[in-house]
Specification:
619 residues; 4% strand; 28 helices; two-stranded antiparallel ribbon; single chain
């Protein structure tokens, strides 16, 4: 019996027996695995009592979520075991929802203080000062480590002395650009316009300028005493003979390195454990950084000032406005591209001897196709199912030629309609995905299959053994492999590898008609393309069309995964049991609204974890 299968069934059994679940489910599990996982000796060092020792409901949820995902993916039980019946699956799924249902006791999860990411910092500086200057690049602020696909997860963020030094450099460089760069004249004029007429250089002027600036920098209303703290710095500079711009620069410098600027700080609930709606200004910040990756604009701030943003109809109106705004391209750049792991395209290094047509410009075109496709889903409010299959894409002349399509005139990208014989449509036919999941001289079916499982379905395989990436020396007692697939099959026959490779490789081999740079190949009678595969619970399939059918059968998994990824990005944290009602609600809304992109965004914005908070440490 597969060890993973044993473990998850043991955990299910322990939870079911503890909560008094139906006897039929318990008896099935007991008959099939209890004998191996109880008593003095247990297989795999797994004891049925281990679930009871987990410290929290959150820890138990993590295991249960994997169990349900693997069951839905058809990878549990393994082929060697009798499959679960539909009734057994429904029973386990119902028990999962019962154990972790918080719909009657809403919980938004922990309230977090979030640090501006490198990208958010750079864009916020630009918008606050109205300048075209990348302070993050100038200061050498490093990119954040990506955790769970996103750079904005609070669990992976850090704030140390070295980074603080770079923030000082960034603030100094940005203010220097504002006050000395000729191209920033309009920005300076805009800043100084707040001063009373014919009163430049007075204490009244500095306060009139700094008050609205501080409010925008802190992204909330500010008290007079907060303004006064920085105005005194300007007063001292003016008293020493500085002109107004120099005096303001000295006062603005500490604002730009203040925790109130660099962090997204929210007021905690007064009472521990109390479910509290965030303020309208805090909601505006959450919404703006989710959709735009920067500070709220004047309109959103004005609505928050009026105290009406939390009204459902006003919130939806603002969300739709912001989603259509060009600034929402940040959602594509920071969330969708990260989810798709598009940054890996930069690491693709096809061998020029094998693939002389793979140029730097072709690589750029592949990435641009994916970006424009993602943008079209946002701007045209299309179905998220088009990620899996679509009858259109975006190409320029070079990419069209690479795909065997009629090149459009000019150098610009254009949207084109696709036909079945074009073998494109959706992510699976995009050169970016195919190139970044290949070796330098050949395809890499395992990497392609892993990408499908991890990115599209949200069910990544476990990490491979330490030496899994290396082929064993040829076995002289065995015939020489006739193909790469046969060679990989021999490698994957290792008992430690076979279970995962049976799940991964068929998905990757279905894309074998695409070479290592995504060019379509039909194969010949002498050298056919081996694109057939078989999956537990699915059966046999072949080629990209067969793979699309497989993914269509797993559409609920894809939809749930996309919702969960979007919610993870919006909240900046891992999801847990208290987020299940939100995920279920959004997935249900998607089915009623043709799976439109805006339904996901509105569902997240209207959710309890997005609009409410609870003190850290409260259960």
């Amino acid at each position: 019996m597969n060890s993973l299968y044993r473990i998850v069934l043991v955990l299910i059994f322990a939870a079911l027996t503890r909560t008094g679940a139906a006897a039929d489910a318990s008896s099935v599990l007991q008959a099939r695995c209890f004998a191996c996982h109880s008593g003095a000796e247990v297989n795999g060092n797994v004891d049925l009592s281990q679930l009871e020792k987990l410290p929290s409901l959150k820890a138990r949820y993590s295991i249960w979520r994997k169990v349900i995902d693997q069951m839905d993916a058809g990878t549990m039980p393994p082929e060697t075991e009798k499959p679960l019946t539909d009734e057994e699956k429904s029973g386990l799924r119902d028990e999962f929802h019962k154990l972790f249902d918080t719909s009657q006791n809403l919980d938004p999860g922990p309230q977090l203080t979030r640090q501006l990411t490198r990208s958010e910092y750079a864009q916020t500086i630009r918008d606050l000062l109205s300048i075209s200057f990348d302070a993050a690049e100038a200061a050498g602020i490093p990119a954040e480590p990506v955790s769970q696909g996103f750079a904005n997860r609070s669990e992976s963020q850090s704030f140390d002395a070295t980074l603080m030094e770079k923030y000082f450099v960034g603030a100094d460089d940005a203010l220097d650009n504002l006050f000395t760069n000729a191209k920033a004249e309009s920005a300076r004029t805009k800043l100084l316009a707040a001063a009373p007429d014919n009163d430049a250089g007075s204490q009244q002027s500095t306060r009139a300028i700094l008050a609205p600036f501080l409010k925008r920098a802190y992204r909330r209303p500010v008290a007079a005493k907060e303004v006064e703290r920085f105005a005194l710095i300007s007063d001292a500079a003016l008293a020493q003979g500085d002109d107004l711009p120099n005096a303001l620069e000295k006062a603005m410098m500490p604002i730009l390195v203040s925790p109130e600027f660099l962090l997204r700080i929210e007021q905690p609930p007064i009472k521990q454990g109390t479910l509290t709606r965030v303020s309208d200004h805090e909601l505006a910040v959450r919404l703006s950084y989710f959709l735009w990756g920067t500070m709220p604009d004047n309109e959103l701030t004005a609505v928050a000032d009026a105290g009406t943003l939390s009204q459902p109809e006003i919130l939806e109106l603002q969300t739709r406005r912001m989603l259509k705004d060009p600034r929402a391209s940040a959602l594509t750049r920071e969330m969708l591209e990260s989810w798709l792991q598009l940054s890996h395209l930069k690491k693709a290094l096809p061998n020029q001897n094998h693939f002389p047509t793979f140029t730097w410009s072709l690589r750029q075109a592949m990435g641009e196709e994916t970006r424009l496709f993602c943008e079209s889903l946002r701007t045209e409010d299309r179905s998220i199912l088009e990620f899996l299959n679509a009858d259109y894409t975006f190409v320029n002349a070079e990419l069209a030629k690479h795909y065997g399509l009629t090149p459009p005139p000019g150098k610009e990208f254009v949207k084109i309609q696709l036909q079945p014989e074009n073998h494109r449509g959706g992510l699976l036919g995009m050169g970016s995905v195919l190139a970044m999941t290949s070796h330098s001289d050949r395809t890499k079916p395992t990497a392609r299959g892993k990408w499908i499982l991890e990115v599209l379905l949200g069910t990544p395989p476990p990490p491979p053994p330490a030496n899994a990436g290396n082929f064993a020396p040829p076995d002289k007692a065995r015939p020489e492999p006739k193909s790469f697939r046969e060679k990989l099959g021999q490698h994957a026959s290792d008992p430690n590898c076979v279970a995962c490779h049976k799940r991964i490789d068929p998905l990757g081999f279905a894309l074998e008609n695409y070479d290592a740079i995504g060019h379509w190949r039909d194969g010949t009678a002498e050298l056919p393309v081996d694109n057939a595969g078989q999956l537990p619970g699915i059966g046999e399939f072949s080629g990209v069309d067969g793979l699309r059918n497989v993914l269509q059968s797993r559409q609920p998994q894809f939809v749930r995964n996309f919702v969960a990824k979007t919610l993870t990005y919006a909240l900046g944290r891992d999801l847990s049991y208290y987020d299940e009602p939100t995920i279920q609600q959004i997935t249900a809304d998607l089915e009623r609204n043709d799976f439109r992109f805006s339904t996901v965004i509105l569902g997240v914005v209207q959710s309890v974890p997005f609009q409410y908070c609870k003190a850290v440490g409260a259960e």
